[in-house]
């Protein structure tokens, strides 16, 4: 079953407002194995909303509307739904009684326009709303469902487990969902896709999703089957083939970030790491220490932005800085070696390079290990932030491989 | 002019993903006086997307599509737009050359599927994308406009001021827009709103927008008038009143971030800064060095995560660490003093505290200046990331006030 969610209300179309209801509903629907294939926010415009509902109803088995169920002229959800489905409405006696009861409880009198809130689509179930005046509605026809829910999260949220989940569960075939998650570093999205598309495009089950961020790609596989065994077999069939072509560029299969993977490897080996940063200016240390418990293996670091600091803190030879410049293989090595020695850590990473100006993107990364000191030249692209981020990904991935 | 925004990509239909592009675009469109009347997220489904584009095109003068311009079969935006508008596409020679150039720059070879990225709607302008392979497109017909932009924010964002705003401005009636921008630190959003709502709610012109992030609030005022003089008068009337009640919590009036403000102050005074970080593990250094040109005033730093490092690198007395613990006023002072002395910088900031576990949120910040060493105790709330971020904001804001 596929779902679309339509949130109604002009107030959600500002630069700083987020439709949190749809995130919550997506979570609940995914848990049931229902995929959300589109979501919209439509202002208080009956014509536009009617069109949006009609399109959703044509494409998806489940349409959930949130908001726009208040008592004013602005509240257009009921009317638009009735128009889109070509269904009449009636005043529901129980719904009106619930409105009266609620007003009585607060010692107030409903106005005539509150009657609008008691209007229910012909053939729909009224869904009680314990925290507000507007009831929800559940309308089912030809195997399709349209749901209306109130907009305020404190009214909507309790209604989902109470009214929506049980009704949906009754409609769904019993299915088991199993997932795999590969995290991959240092490969371009199109290169990766060229590698794995020949595999995953052959299957709709498991479904494959690829998410790319700077230096990092997540591959999600989701199998939905009648039994767990069947799902695991499908995941193995597709997942193992994908894992084989990507190889050791996969750094995690459980969602761990690169810095978490490194932390676990260091803990397992009882070893520690330090950093010496020039171009990244603290970003590498900040990433490593973003992991709770990192004090167990992170000894510290040296932000040596000036040549004097590289000399005095890390013992990088004046000669190296003069003859080779601070952005060189030798400087990166000397920084890593100095950081390892002066921190007492087992491993040390160093970074030096140009983040902007003429030679932007020229970076050297150093790695000092118990068995030697190495450096690598990188030629990165993008703005200052990207060059610095990619430097960190390269450094961390190098350490991961050294530890693995 | 009314606008609709359609974001394309199944990855944005998960329970934890937010379409930040649409928030940014809404901000930019509102600044031009264009209202966003609907926005949608549609998965990678050509048929559904074609329908969504057709509906938006029927209802609004401006339709902006983001994402789905990549090289894979999954990237359906171009095809769907062509189908919805009943327009053919052609391979654009310049667009293909741009793809080739970009790959060449990185020493890579495009795959055959990259050709898809050079397809342009007949009659559309190609919009250059300096940070990615996929160009944008601008298609205009019968007074309506359809725009396609790449999904990654670092590609999309620079294209909006460069390509979209000027083209839209040319279509709009001539109105003069003048803005003010206050950036405010270390005050809660509701406290701030209680202070300034009595002022700004009296006016619809200038329009006031408040954007809140952790430790940071932006207040935008936008006046739209027939003349610049009129607009400036309105801005002064509302803006000056707002500035007066907020006082020196305003750290910037030109959009500069806190670390940029500090950089300019240090450059103006010919002075320098260093850091000694424990709880923030490099975040403070990373923030300071995120500013291009920061090598002019950032000398470097010490990430002293262990007590041994605090002793050996910064000379924090063993006594202090034993009797007072590493999270104490004395430790923060000794760290700042040690960092200042050993880096030769004029100022040094230090951070020490607990990011999680029992005493999470207890933080000391130190500041060493040419005239003395000070420390402050903070009691912060939130998760590890927020505690570390707020520690940085507090430290930087303290330095700003010391320099101002």
List keywords for this structure.
Molybdenum Cofactor Biosythetic Enzyme, Chain A, Alpha-Beta Plaits, 404 residues, alpha/beta, Maf protein, homodimer, five-stranded mixed beta sheet, six-stranded mixed beta sheet
Structure description:
The structure is a homodimer of 404-residue chains. Chain A is built from 13 helices and 17 strands. By secondary structure, chain A is an alpha/beta fold. Chain A folds into 3 domains: 2-171, MoaB/Mog-like domain (Molybdenum Cofactor Biosythetic Enzyme, Chain A); 176-252, Alpha-Beta Plaits, CATH 3.30.70; 258-403, CinA-like (Maf protein, Alpha-Beta Complex). In chain A, the strands form 4 sheets. In chain A, strands 2-1-3-8-7-6 form a 6-stranded mixed sheet, sandwiched between helices. In chain A, a hairpin with a 2-residue loop joins β7 (136-141) and β8 (144-149). In chain A, α1 (20-31) runs parallel beside α5 (153-171).
